[in-house]
Amino acid sequence: MKNFFDSIVRTPGVLLMSILMIGFAINAGVGYIHSSDSAGPSLLAAASLVVGQFILIVIHQLRKIGQGSPAAIKCSSTR
Q1: Which of 3, 15, 36, 47 minimizes the number of CB atoms within 10 Å of its CB?
Q2: How far is the C-alpha of 53 from the C-alpha of 48, rounded, in Å?
Q3: pLDDT value at position 9?
Q4: Rounded Cα–Cα distance for residues 19 and 4 (Å)
Q5: How far is C-alpha 36 from the geometric centre of its chain's CA atoms?
Q6: What span, in angstroms and rounded, lies between the C-alpha atoms of 13 and 16?
């Protein structure tokens, strides 16, 4: 299970998306505290980054599974 979480953390782009998501969430919190209208779009951006991270992780894990399949191993051994 630890290898699975390590592979998620090492997925390209997840760290950058996490940093951006935290920044947008902080911006939304500050906008909410100051009662400005900037909280909504920032919160929407943070939520879309979370969805994007999930999709990126699923695609990366599916590619990893596909590379480890017997058909992929058979094709790579003939080269």
Answers
A1: 3
A2: 9
A3: 73
A4: 21
A5: 29
A6: 5
Q: How far apart are CA 19 and CA 16, in angstroms?
A: 5
How would residue 76 be classed by pLDDT, with cut points 50, 70 and 90?
Answer: low
Backbone angles phi, psi at 68, to 5 degrees: -90, 0
Give the C-alpha separation, 8 to 15, whole Å: 10
Phi and psi torsions of 6, nearest 5°: -65, -40
Calpha distance 64→41 (Å, rounded): 34
8 A C-beta contact, residue 60 and residue 15? no
Q: Is the pTM of this model over 0.85?
A: no
Higher pLDDT, 4 or 33: 33
